[in-house]
Amino acid sequence: LEHQANLAGDPAISRLVDQCADRIHHFFSDEESIVPSCLHGDLWSGNINSVVNGDGQISPTIFDPACYYGHHEAEWGMSWCASLGPQFWAGYRELIPEAPLFRARRPLYEAYHQMNHYNLFGGGYRGAAVSCLEQALQAIS
């Protein structure tokens, strides 16, 4: 978050990121085990499609990854532009149940990508990034 805030050069974003960093321990619990996962890193609707296999079966396909190891929840940071339906998320939760502090952390993971988009494309992404950071802080207040 701090890297993206520095790139943005926006005092309001930097202040909110600093407030989140000062309270980072409130977003995690010793009771939650976080095991690094291999993440796609750029999971949005433009990187999701389907292909027809040799036997005529249709299979989902993801491509153009920006892979890294991290907390599996970080993948949710791009869910705002992934267009994945309720069935996808229900299946996801069958495999990985929602952690107690997930709802507090989710805006942090999204804020990273909103700030990245703001730094790359400008415009309305600034407001979305600020909103995510404010939501995260509100979740732990």
Describe this structure in words.
- This protein is α+β, with helices and mostly antiparallel strands and 141 residues long.
- It has helices at residues 2-8, 11-22, 86-95, 102-121, 125-139; strands spanning 37-39, 48-52, 58-62, 68-70.
- A hairpin with a 5-residue loop joins strand 2 (48-52) and strand 3 (58-62).
- The protein is globular and about 55 Å long.
- The two termini are 20 Å apart.
- The mean pLDDT is 94.
Strand order of the biggest β-sheet: 1-4
Compute the separation of the termini in Å: 20 Å
Question: Helix count?
Answer: 5
**Which regions have little confidence, pLDDT < 50, spanning 5+ residues?**
none
Mean pLDDT: 94
Largest sheet: 2 strands, antiparallel
| Element pattern in H and E | HHEEEEHHH
Strand content: 5-15%
Shape: globular
Class computed from helices, strands and strand pairing? alpha+beta
Number of strands: 4
Task: Give me a quick take on this structure.
The protein has helices at 2-8, 11-22, 86-95, 102-121, 125-139; strands spanning 37-39, 48-52, 58-62, 68-70. With 141 residues, it is an alpha+beta fold. A two-stranded antiparallel ribbon has the order 1-4. A two-stranded antiparallel sheet has the order 2-3.
Keywords:
141 residues; alpha+beta; two-stranded antiparallel ribbon; 5 helices; globular
Element layout with pairings:
Elements: H1 2-8, H2 11-22, E1 37-39, E2 48-52, E3 58-62, E4 68-70, H3 86-95, H4 102-121, H5 125-139
Antiparallel strand pairs: 1-4, 2-3
